[in-house]
């Protein structure tokens, strides 16, 4: 087999890259370890920055997103017995976020690729990128019990944090920046209409809670829990009880409950690998960096990386100009670090830490109060939350 760009991973990064490359007339093959059904059902992020929405819509993959996505013009920070709205329409006029499940983005992109005759090989095993430091790299893999190799001009490592591509870069090339948080998030998907029109970020002495949603019928909740917490310790009744305790803190507001569709615990971590490239291998999305989900940046960063990579590959194929490819990491890392800082900042602002004493907690509450009462501070939160502009693809 031969293609121009071999893409490892059919998450948002790999699929969007394949789609954008196709629009530029560049061929790719996507290799995915899981089944189509699995990746289309995998519940993860759900907040799209305006720039991500623009990219999906202008590339022709946003028709259902425009129909079904929920456009939000603000979020609520809830603490000290009060709700405080961060009003995007006032603070960052003309900008908003859209709530639309990551698995829906994945479904739309798979449909777009397959509809255009694109190749996605699901359920591949033993994926092995090869020859990344020479002009003719390739990827070996097992598919339908047969060992195969695909030759390409470039390899895109879009295989997430636990993928294999980052590990084939020779030792000493990458520098890793890593931060583990002393808590995890228990995520819950429930068949109940959201109790609020907008997301609620609640800071509470019992720990952080987030009320989110995926559609008018499906709510998404998160609870700060111990990092190695056992999900078996969280029967549904305990989850609802804890969500009520952390969220029902303003007069007249109550939480609607319903059947739990899915629940799981995710560790909270920040990670960056620099540079995001070596030879003919380019890392994008979670393969190169992860953020705690408090700032809702992971999927949006993946979209940004592959937009930058598409432009760079298009320049190389059209004129042989390698300058954008050479500058890929640098072009991505500026935004990656902004998102790293914002995600760390939101996490630190809203969670409780075991080492905090009463003084630290008062400082945190004072800062929350400042963020909500100062136009400068709330504008800073709003502009980071809705995200910076996305380049043309
Ligand atoms: C468990 C989890 C929960 C999350 N929850 C949230 C959330 O609630 N809110 C939020 O804002 N963000 C969340 N995120 C972050 C967000 O979902 C990611 O930033 C986003 O998925 C990044 O997209 P990606 O395409 O780079 O990576 P991924 O979506 O991880 O896609 C990588 C793909 O590569 C495939 N793959 C891996 N290894 C191989 C291999 N060896 N060969 C072939 N294919 C391979 C994987 O199966 C996967 O399909 C979560 C992430 C995780 C991991």
Structure overview:
The structure is a single chain. This protein is α+β, with helices and mostly antiparallel strands and 393 residues long. 36% of the residues lie in helices and 27% in strands. It contains twelve helices and 20 strands. The protein has helices at residues 12-23, 36-41, 50-58, 63-68, 88-91, 102-115, 236-247, 298-319, 323-326, 328-350, 358-373, 375-386; strands spanning 5-8, 28-31, 47-48, 70-72, 74-79, 82-87, 97-99, 119-121, 125-130, 138-143, 146-151, 154-157, 175-190, 200-202, 209-213, 219-225, 260-274, 277-278, 281-283, 289-290. An eight-stranded mixed β-sheet has the order 6-5-14-15-16-13-17-20. A six-stranded mixed β-sheet has the order 8-2-1-12-19-18. A three-stranded antiparallel β-sheet has the order 3-7-4. A hairpin with a 5-residue loop joins strand 15 and strand 16. Helix 1 (12-23) packs parallel to helix 6. It starts with a strand and ends in a 7-residue tail after the last helix. The mean pLDDT is 97. It binds flavin-adenine dinucleotide (FAD). Flavin-adenine dinucleotide binds next to helix 1 and helix 8.
């Amino acid at each position: 087999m031969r293609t121009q760009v071999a893409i490892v991973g059919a998450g948002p990064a790999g699929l969007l890259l394949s789609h954008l490359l196709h629009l530029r007339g560049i061929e790719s093959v996507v290799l995915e370890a899981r089944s189509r059904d699995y990746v289309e059902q995998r519940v993860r992020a759900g907040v799209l920055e305006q720039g991500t929405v623009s990219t999906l819509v202008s590339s022709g993959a946003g028709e259902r997103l425009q129909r079904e996505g929920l456009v939000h013009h603000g979020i609520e920070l809830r603490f000290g017995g009060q709700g405080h709205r961060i009003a995007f329409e006032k603070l960052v006029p003309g900008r908003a976020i859209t709530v639309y499940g990551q698995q829906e983005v994945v479904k739309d992109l798979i449909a777009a690729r397959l509809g255009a005759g694109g190749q996605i090989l699901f359920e591949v095993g033993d994926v092995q990128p090869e020859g990344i430091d020479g002009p003719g790299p390739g990827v070996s893999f097992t598919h339908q019990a047969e060992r195969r190799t695909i030759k390409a001009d470039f390899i895109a490592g879009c295989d997430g944090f636990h993928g294999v591509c980052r590990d084939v870069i020779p030792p000493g090339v990458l520098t890793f920046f890593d931060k583990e948080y002393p808590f995890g998030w228990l995520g819950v998907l429930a068949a109940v209409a959201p109790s609020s029109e907008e997301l609620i970020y609640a800071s509470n002495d019992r720990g952080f809670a987030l009320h989110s949603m995926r559609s008018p019928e499906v709510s998404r909740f998160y609870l700060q829990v111990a990092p190695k917490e056992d999900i078996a310790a969280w029967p549904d009744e305990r989850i609802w009880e804890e969500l009520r305790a952390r969220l029902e803190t303003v007069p007249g507001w109550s939480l609607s409950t319903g059947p739990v569709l899915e629940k799981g615990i995710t560790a909270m971590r920040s990670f960056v690998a620099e540079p995001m490239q070596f030879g003919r291998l380019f890392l994008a999305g979670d393969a190169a960096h992860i953020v705690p989900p408090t700032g809702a940046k992971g999927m949006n960063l993946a979209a940004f990386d592959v937009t930058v990579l598409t432009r760079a590959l298009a320049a190389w194929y059209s004129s042989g100009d390698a300058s954008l490819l050479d500058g890929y990491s640098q072009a991505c890392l500026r935004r990656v670090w902004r998102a790293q800082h914002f995600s760390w900042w939101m996490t630190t602002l809203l969670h409780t830490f075991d080492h905090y004493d009463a003084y630290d907690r008062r400082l945190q509450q004072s800062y929350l109060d400042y963020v909500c009462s100062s136009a400068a501070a709330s504008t800073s939160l709003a502009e980071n939350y809705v995200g910076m502009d996305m380049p043309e693809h």
